[in-house]
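Supplementary Text 2. Reproducibility record for the structural model of the 315-residue chain.

All settings were left at their defaults, and a single model was retained for analysis rather than an ensemble. We include the record here because the model underlies the residue-level annotations in Supplementary Table 4.
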Amino acid sequence: MNLQQFRFVRETIRRDFNLTEAARMLYTSQPGVSKAIIEFEDELGVKIFERHGKRIKGLTKPGLAVSQVIDRIMREVDNLKKVSDEFARRDEGGLVIACTHTQARYLLPRVIPAFRKQFPKVHLSLAEGSPSQLAEMVLHEQADLAIATESLALTPGLATLPCYTWEHTVVVRPDHELAELKSSEAKRLTLEQLAAFPIVTYDRAFTGRSTIDEVFASQSIHPDIVLEAIDADVIKTYVDVGLGIGIIAGVAYDPRRDTGLIGLPVGHLFGTHTTRVGVKAGVFLRDYVYTFIEMMAPALTRNVVAKAVQGQQGD
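Retained model, structure tokens:
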């Protein structure tokens, strides 16, 4: 058995058992992948994959156990490469950050310039998507870390830590009747008052939208959500043109920048949320990855993150 066979098995699983796709990602031929897998199964003396004719349909029971071992082996092989890079090219390399639009637009601009100043030879890339997509990017090693809401913590195979907390904010035009509320009245804003107006808010996969739906449903209130979007800038644009009131993450509202809108914090209605940073459990992290995470959240020191990555911390 050899590392090439391990790679073929791992990529076949990642590509939903599509040998053609696995071969394409590995820059080889489909017959070559199939032959190598069959030879590996013969060497092990067990079938790794369930087949229907020549097509692979899934993993056998022993195949599931084999795939888990292969994942551990390949993770350690990748760690060896990262250790080599760390000491041969300590301040050089790449860092792929998987994040939502909210993080890319509102959190990272205060982090990336400082990071670039300290590590000018590190190439940065942002990969945007939904929280579930971000988690998959990290698990499949297409990204080094992910930044998203609480859902990251629900993904097996990720080590996640709290980055910062936030609450939702309602945004309205200055001529809207909710903008006339006094501060004390705004703090007592009710779900019924919000539901009296058309609402523009996030797509169901993003930024605490599930909580918004659950809170309204718990009171048997059916809001008129007229538009869903994946980022706060789009939501604010449609609020500004009079489509409705907006519900966005508080971090996405800045009264100095959003001068054409009024923000009303509604944490008392929709609660407090936690944005988390996640990395693949058990991986070797380059020194600059630890530094980047600590720049985002000073409480996440190298020691704290290292313990989480190695499974020594439950948070």
